[in-house]
User: Fold these one by one.
Assistant:
Number 1:
Amino acid sequence: MKLVTFDNGGVIRIGLLDGDAVVDLAAADPSLPTEMCAFLEAGDAAMDAARAALASDAPRIELADVHLESPILRPPKILAIGLNYRDHVEEAGLEVPQHPTVFNKQSTSAHPPYDAFHMPRASTALDYEAELAIVIGKRCRHVPAAEASQVIAGYTICNDVSVRDWQLRVPTWTMGKSFDTHCPLGPSIVTADEIGDPHTLDVNTWVNGEARQSSNTKHLIFDCFDLVEHLSTAFTLEPGDVIPTGTPGGVGIAMKPPQLLKVGDVVKIAISGIGEIEASVIEEPESTAQW
């Protein structure tokens, strides 16, 4: 299944992608939650009800008539992984890490898959990073890698948008990775059963139609299940937590000369089995200057 959060007529709720339409789960089964984290927390029973709705003649809404939001509007945690493809480590001039490099992206950075994201007022050192993201489906702690698939609800695409000067001027990367709009996610959460092996997926990025990144998740240094084991050693993972798994080589800052993003650029990211997200860069609008 492909789980989405969508806006139709000013009402935000969850549904399922079905070709060029969205199954409205609230209409199909009013007992189901209308928010993604609550849906995931409802567990296997909710998933089974959604599968039944997909197989039924439940109401569909044309995809053209909805606005796709971030599949999870406000993830409880966004636990991102850096330096997790060897070619990206090499282009950064660093050593292959012995342990996963973990940093936070703040939950307020979550952003719809096709909405423009901001060139911040504080910097022009804006970059893209295509990443497969894990979505946790079950509250868990101390999960062995061999059992990690049981707590994963599905997978989505993340653009780990990065403000490079803010990221690299201090040892911790959180500020440079967490600007508002800098975590586009989507277009859907593809359930784990539909993905199968998450370590066989092609990852590609284009900027203004020019190919920039081309890899496969088989090249992850620490795979999806290793990451769940590592993170859950320290703290509880919760339904709706998002784990971007790292980006392959080809980021703009590492090109010679560097090719950072400009206002008007269009970034498209595709991951096989999931789909694609695409959005342009705009100036940070004045409307964000509120206190």
Note: Residues 89 and 95 are 7 Å apart (CA to CA).
Number 2:
Amino acid sequence: MVFYFSGTGNSRWVAEYIAKELNDSLVFIPDAIKQEKYSYSLKQEEKLGFVFPCYAWSVPTFISQFISMLNINNVSYLYYICTCGDDTGRLQQEFCRIVEAKGWTCYLGYDIMMPESYVCLPGFDVDTNEKEQNKIYAAKSKLNFAVDDIIDCRKGTFVTLPGGCTWLKSVLLRWAFHKWLMTPRYFKTNEKCIGCGMCVKSCPFENIQLNEQRPEWGNQCVDCLRCYHSCPSHAIEWGRWTSKKGQYLMPKDFHGF
């Protein structure tokens, strides 16, 4: 069983690949949360996996909260795969602590570098088309190794991308991100907005509503930026720095397996 979350499609692509190779079922975490479905049963020798994007060099808060509420028996082998645009800091150690609090052990983890989607601050933007393709090509190869390791039930295998200054990123900067930057209050629309409602349809948590043909963001935002990247007229902005930045979505029909 593979639980996953994806905003712009990177983690969805990875989760679909893993589920296909392992012949496992997929659970989209926002759907489970909306249905308040937290109890699941694993088949004999079925593996338990989590696929999610890195947020501020850490595990997204709503992912850790979801895991804390899960009720799953017979967990014999657990792994995670994290997608990221660059590095992940101390995410591996954090994820292991989260599942240990459930009485589980994480035996394997992979960080998979994928096309960049975070654009909110200066110095962050989407990748060039060439860099996107290079990342996806490298990700395919790395995923093949991950699948083989999962099938073999490898233990103690963590192929991660911590980068430098891990304490600064995963502790101090993460705290600052969550306190001041991971909020819907900076979302707005400019004069390009056509009131099409694509942002409403794209939001994984149904957190956006149209008011007089203009979107309004509620309090369930997880800052996945799918609304920004899905807007056909590039009318959605976050703060002061996104108006001239690019958009990125992994096409739903793209497999590349």
Note: Residues 129-151 form the longest helix (23 residues).
Number 3:
Amino acid sequence: MALDHYVSQVHLRKFYSTKLGNRMYAIRKQDLKAFTPDAHSVCRLEEGNTNPFLKEARAIEEFLKTVEPCYNSAVDKLQNDTIDHDCVYVIAGFVAYVLTCSPAAMRQQAGPIKHMIEETARALDSKDNLPKVSAVLAERSVTELLDSGLFRVQVDPKYPQAIGTASIFSRINTFGNFKWEILVNTIENSPFFTSDFPVAVEKTPNIQIQNWIVPLAPNLAIRICPDCEYDHQQTDFSFTGFRRVIRHLKRQEVISINRLLVQCAETTVFFRDNHEWVPGFVKQFSGFQVNVRAMKRGHLHWFTHEIERVS
């Protein structure tokens, strides 16, 4: 059986420690256990990229052949400010892949599907379009069973993965036509972390829009800033809408980004340099994860990513 990496090994190798050779430092959020894995031994699942809901069950693997071999070159282009079409495609593709196939992404995206099923059931029930449940449950309505917790909707995480895989080029199209901030970290004793979900959520003044912050190397990250006026139906793989700003970060900005990266990590934080402040920092922000929450204003529903305390 295939062991599929849901965070590309080429990404994780960027965070190898010079003191460890071909390994990096890691801390598990649940118990704060520290270890030193290599890229091959983490962020992988048996048949993780095999999806029975797709006609081509391993379709995402073909897509990755256009992304992973070019990752190092794309990062170099960002660092040297020689960004071209291929660079934008590869980095956007890497982000889209994490947001499609990682366990964190599948868990998060199951939430909106669950919500829509429940809301549809309630709407049908309110119009008496659903039968009462059996006498064993006192002939309660579906709405009553949902409210009591006796009836729960469960979503196979492979289903949102299939939806994400089928629409991955659409996501690359939008990411590639948004504004990017190239975040340069020159703070020697405070390099960027990465994780098993290396895409941090950042709030903006508009509650319907969130930025994505993605570490690409210990000294480099990007902030993808969505444009609410962008026509998502427009296909533009020449990325004519792409624009970039280079920002050299101050220490406090780096600290804020690393805080988000720890909070958004699903289970494990990875890092290049084992500075003495790192274990305490990870411990401080380990009790969080990203969830997708339904928002409602009148008849309008939308979904937003929220960093929430879990312990």
Note: The first helix runs from residue 9 to 13.
Number 4:
Amino acid sequence: MRILIVEDDRALASGLKRSLTSLGYAVDHQSDAAEAAEVAVLEPYNLIVLDLGLPNGSGYDVMRKVRLKGLKTPIMILTARDHVSEKVKALDLGADDYVNKPFALEEFEARVRALVRRGFGVSSPVLECGPLTFDPTTGIAQLNGAPLDLRRRELAVLHVLLVQAGKLVPKTRLISEVFGFDDPVAPNALELYIARLRKKFGESGLRIRTVRGLGYLLDHA
């Protein structure tokens, strides 16, 4: 899952990025409104975390451009502006959530998870496919009730495949949701993580099927 943080407070942005990365998200950061608007409409983000006060424009400008493109990417406003009129304006322009600074990190993380689920039309916090379950709240994946020992990237790949279980996930989409701009990506990195997951699934009946030239599909035999 890939998230864009648009925030000109670099210390805050760095802390949020560390937090979300530790939860398995790929995170990009922009501090400029004009640059953020350009990136936000080009990359397939699962969530945009957006400050309102930015250089070269405002969060409202970014949001307008995203919505005018017809994109339904969930948008969380993260701002010190606490006037009701600001909240009403943001929600009317297409914001999905409005969080005032200062805020508790635990609440922020919970709101992120909720908005990402909403973006995929998923209501339950626990994802399932056959004997496999994954709880993004805890970051724990279990197979037949036993915890799976997964590295962060493996967990990120699994998360995307589970959200779309039974559906084809294009390779380009999987790469773009698992790796951020600053992440070094070897030519066969995705295939390596897929191979590791297949090995850990063993004889459980879980399959990650390769649809040659298109992508991958997670299902259960």
Note: The two ends are 26 Å apart (CA to CA).
